[in-house]
Design goal:
Number of strands: 16
Bound molecules: iron/sulfur cluster
Largest sheet: 5 strands, mixed
CATH architecture of the largest domain: 3-Layer(aba) Sandwich
Helix content: 40-55%
Number of helices: 22
CATH class of the largest domain: Alpha Beta
CATH topology of the largest domain: Rossmann fold
Strand order of the largest sheet: 2-1-3-4-5
Distance between the termini: 69 Å
Shape: globular
CATH superfamily of the largest domain: NADH-ubiquinone oxidoreductase 51kDa subunit
């Protein structure tokens, strides 16, 4: 039998570590033939701590909201060949490739709902998160057991680099960091630059309030990211990659370092990968948590040891990036998509998602929503489906009023526009952005002017100060919002707020300043009445 405990940051934060330790001690005392395995997060953060139990040939059963006092019951049940049915949330039938058995239907499990019968899981399409929370992120053998590194193995041994690149181009994969630039095109531009040295970088500087998709991807399945980068390096033609990750993600850093060491030991990173003449290795660079260092030119400056401030483009990184060499920068989720594209083919991938928006997107669904967690859906899914069908609407039975997509640079979208699909163009059309994938739900009690103030306050604190519109403009925006919220604003202040926001967006140097006014502009447009009620008209 096998017992797993979800030990991503979310699981550990609500007691997963104590549960794991208690089970470990009990297992040591009783010395049964049983494996206890730490995993990442299966996405249903609201139901953590999540423990799974499984017997060979029987379903994998998820137990939710487990506490230390449940541990003896769990262990007793497992040792007597069953599971603690009273704690069971659902079961997964096809999973035990990890234990080397063919699945057989487990008798006595019928009353436990199937995984797909739980709306939170059943309404999703898991491609990137397929093994998150199931496999041990600190054991490369488990990644190999679920087919990991088979795409890289096959590509390096049987495909030309150009063929790999063409597959990514044909897949239509767009960058998941926010801008949605075609990943294959960026690879090609970097590949075609003449240079003695090129780099690829993974942007793991996830800093949006409420967004933790990338953290989970790295904590739960770090080899998936490494495999994506190997494929990218092979296609572009480079022997060196870096992962730039914020220091506030210590668990992700630890698991990535462990995964890189495991891959090196098996000859999956380093010289002559898989016995071919292709060599590639990955280093980790940590950032100190400045939001602006997620901007590509600031990120490179930070790696080089300079102050993390953006510079005007051109030159683009693909022309002159790290150490002045052509550099391809993609975010965590973009890299994670590559192995499935190479493994299943670009046509398979294009069939997921929508026109010009192929594939899935992982979102962190947080805020005033009942079922908080990580959600993976095909691009083109409506907000309504994500918030109501998967998230089950407002927390504590309250009415949902709006969502904010795209982090501090995104817009606030009112309920009446929830038929909008989440894809790059549709969100832009209503004044918001996809961003890296944060979805913050707001209920009927939310003051939207206060929400705008929160995000402007965040952006003001994170502005690097290099250009005046962003540095000074955001400060004045904050002053105006504070005045309005204190009941001392005027109708003229609202006009100033709008024109100031438009000016900041139009004249700031980098994406931070260009998008920071979005929360103000969208709340002014969609929730004008709330502003009007606060000012002297
Ligand atoms: Fe710095 Fe803001 Fe200007 Fe970007 S827009 S360079 S963050 S001051």
């Amino acid at each position: 039998p096998r017992i797993t405990v979800g030990l991503a940051t979310c699981g550990a934060a609500v007691g997963g570590t104590a549960i794991y330790e208690r089970l470990r001690e009990s297992i040591q005392k009783r010395n049964p033939d049983l494996s206890l395995v730490p995993t990442g997060c299966i996405g249903y953060c609201r139901e953590e701590p999540i423990v799974t139990v499984a017997h060979p040939g029987k379903p994998l059963v998820l137990l939710n909201r487990v506490s230390v006092k449940d541990c003896d019951d769990i262990l007793n049940a497992v040792l007597s060949g069953t599971v603690p049915h009273d704690k069971a949330l659902c079961r997964i039938e096809e999973w035990d490739h990890l234990m080397g058995h063919n699945i057989t239907y487990g008798r006595g499990f019928d009353e436990i709902p199937l995984y797909d019968e739980i709306p939170f899981f059943g309404q999703q399409k898991k491609v990137i998160l397929r093994d998150a929370g199931i496999i041990n992120p600190e054991d490369i053998d488990e990644f190999l057991a679920v087919g990991g590194y088979s795409a890289a193995y096959n590509a390096l041994r049987n495909m030309e680099p150009d063929t790999v690149l063409e597959e990514v181009e044909k897949s239509g994969l767009r960058g998941r960091g926010g801008a949605g630039f075609p990943a294959g095109l960026k690879w090609r531009i970097t590949k075609e630059k003449k240079s003695d040295k090129k780099y690829i970088i993974c942007n793991a500087d996830e800093g949006d309030p409420g967004a933790y998709m990338n953290r989970n991807e790295m904590e739960s399945d770090p080899h998936m990211l490494i495999e994506g980068m190997i494929l990218g390096a092979y296609a572009i033609g480079t022997d060196e990659g870096l992962i730039y990750i914020r220091a506030e993600y210590p668990l992700a850093i630890r698991r990535l370092k462990h995964a890189i060491a495991e891959a090196r030991e098996l000859g999956i990173l380093g010289e002559n990968i898989f016995g071919t003449d292709f060599s590639f290795d990955i280093q980790i660079a940590t950032g100190a948590g400045a939001f602006v260092c997620g901007e590509s030119t600031a990120l490179v400056a930070s790696i080089e040891g300079r102050t993390g401030r953006p510079h005007p483009r051109p030159p683009r990184l693909t022309d002159s990036g790290l150490w002045g060499k052509p550099t391809d920068l993609n975010n965590v989720e973009t890299w994670c998509n590559v192995p499935v594209i190479i493994k299943n083919g670009s046509e398979w991938y294009r069939n997921i998602g929508a026109e010009k928006n192929s594939g899935t997107k992982v979102f962190s669904l947080v805020g005033d929503v009942e079922k908080v967690g990580l959600v993976e859906v095909p691009l083109g899914t409506t907000l309504k489906r994500i918030v109501f069908d998967i998230g089950n609407g407002g927390a504590d039975g309250k009415a949902v009023k709006a969502v904010q997509t795209g982090g501090p640079s995104g817009g606030c979208i009112p309920l009446r526009l929830f038929d909008t699909t989440v894809d790059f163009e549709s969100l832009n059309a209503i004044g918001s952005i996809m961003g890296s994938g944060g979805i913050v739900v707001m209920d009927e009690d939310t003051n939207m002017v206060d929400i705008a103030r929160y995000f402007i306050s965040f952006a003001t604190g994170e502005s690097c100060g290099k250009c005046i519109p962003c540095r000074e403009g955001l400060k004045h925006t904050l002053i105006l919002l504070n005045r309005i919220l204190a009941g001392k604003g005027t109708a003229e202040d609202l006009d100033t707020l709008k024109s100031l926001s438009e000016t900041i967006a139009a004249t700031s140097l980098c994406g931070l300043g260009q998008t920071a006014p979005n929360p103000v502009l969208t709340t002014l447009e969609y929730f004008r009445g709330e502003y009007d009620s606060l000012v002297k008209l």
